[in-house]
Amino acid sequence: MQHKDSNIQARIDEWLTPIFDTTTQQEIHNLQNTDPKELEESFYKNLEFGTGGMRGIMGVGTNRINKYTLGKNTQGLSNYLKRTFPEIQPKAVIAYDCRNQSDTLAKLVADVFSANGIKVFLFSELRPTPELSFAVKELGCQCGIVLTASHNPPEYNGYKVYWEDGGQLVPPQDAEIIQEIDSLTYADIKFDATPELIELIDDKIDQVFIERSVKNGSFVATSEAKKQTKIVFTSLHGTSITLVPETLKQAGYTDVHIVAEQASPDGNFPTVVSPNPEEPEALEMAMKLAREIDADIVIGTDPDCDRLGIAVKNNEGNLQLLNGNQTMVTMTWFLLEHYKMQGLKGNEFIASTIVSTPMMRNLAEAYNVDYKEVLTGFKWIAKLIKDFPDKHFIGGGEESFGFMVGDFVRDKDAVTATLLACEIVAYAKDKGSSFYNMLLDLYTKHGCYKESLISLVKKGRDGAKEIQQTMIDLRTKAPKEIGGEKVVLIEDYQESTSENTQDHTVTTLDVPKSNVLIFYTEEGSKIAARPSGTEPKIKFYISVQAPLKEESDYKAVETKLDQKIHAIKSDLKLD
């Protein structure tokens, strides 16, 4: 049966030629007979690099993660590496997470690299993404690959590319590599490995990484306070179990309780609906254990261990889940305090993203350090370190539960950030305070902020069209008021414009183009709309703020901010 779209049919026909193995061809025939809609979804486009590399559903087809789409990527990358580094034998390091097929896909990528004469270091078992970023520089590699789909559902996998500085691909390399990949056919892929060019690694890097993490994540807490800090940790069936417990141990934390039911790596994530620490449900088992043993802090990491969610005790003695912005500002403040005690030299900076809390800018101003704001995605924060070599990066993060401590890793790093969170709890114990009280103290000094994220899932081809239309409507029918507050500024990152809606002056945004719209109101609210680069979602980020005079007023002010958020959601029909 021929597909009505000739472009889709041409792709299907190609995948039924002898270039592709019989198993692949049989799967396509099965879809033709049983699920034509899935067949269309699998072939209607090519998978593209987004904010986190290439990520998609596993299966046959040009729009799926499989040996051929990843093989073509790796062949293109091999060609680019050899052309970019003609005087040396390029080296690549490869890691993978707990996802189904991650180990076999990692081996496939290693085979293609080696077939092209590239030296490969391959982790022999699953390892956290931040360790891969670290290993690129530590081993003197020109690039790194990690097979992961981060916190996506079980049917996903992905392919993240890192460059020689340990950061993810950014311009101009990303576009140049994509151009190289697009110039290839599937017949160009070299699958036949050169085994002597593939070297298995694991402990060789593990201990060095842990030592650096302890060095960067340990500060002023006493050894006694560390011993008294009761920690519940869950790896959510992911890679963090390989490094986090040992890192905490070497840093002096001995009262660590691991959620046993979630400790074994498993790409099906049997105990959670979604292995995403942004979602409260993912931490339910950890929260239950923490209540039973009266823990001070709960920490959960996503499958590839670059994001973390935490809960700490509030002033009623109950565990309080924190959002990514709250964790980020507390961690950033703690680092700034440490640097202040050591003596700021005047060249330091912190960083965050355009959809994260405006409170980060307030912290930078209070400590007289530079604040740099970039597009969503940690690759842009890592790029800042490369772009400003005379500046010293203290730390920074984004609202989506990612944080980076210093620059020994050039990506969000839940190993070191987990240690930093525990360090704050232990330090607060020494001071007769708590993580939660330190957050409230920040609100009294720098303004009380509250954020809300709404993610609308729109799957498949029709969903992509719906997301596109939503952004078009927001641009062409821009709201003059949101939640009863007058819109005073509109930033359009696709057009690189910032328009003052009062006097209609327009300035240019000096950042790369991105499909993001941000509305600012006269009362300091901020509403951003952005299609996800890695998932079939459109996301709305809401930030509201109000002054907080006394910590005792927090509940009342929080209620007021909740009402603001509700009004904004209602206005944008996001309830």
From TrEMBL:
Domain of life: Bacteria
Keyword annotations from UniProtKB, A to Z: Isomerase, Magnesium, Metal-binding, Phosphoprotein
MF-aspect GO terms: magnesium ion binding; phosphopentomutase activity
Alpha-D-phosphohexomutase alpha/beta/alpha domain boundaries: 48-185, 221-314, 323-439
Cofactor: Mg(2+)
Coiled coil: none
UniProt xrefs under Pfam families: PGM_PMM_I (PF02878), PGM_PMM_II (PF02879), PGM_PMM_III (PF02880)
InterPro entries xrefs: A-D-PHexomutase_a/b/a-I, A-D-PHexomutase_a/b/a-I/II/III, A-D-PHexomutase_a/b/a-II, A-D-PHexomutase_a/b/a-III, A-D-PHexomutase_C_sf, A-D-PHexomutase_CS, Alpha-D-phosphohexomutase_SF
GO biological process, one term: carbohydrate metabolic process
Range of residues in the leader sequence: none
Keyword set includes Translocase: no
Family the UniProt entry places it in: Belongs to the phosphohexose mutase family.
Name the UniProt record assigns to this protein: Phosphoglucomutase
Gene source species: Aquimarina intermedia
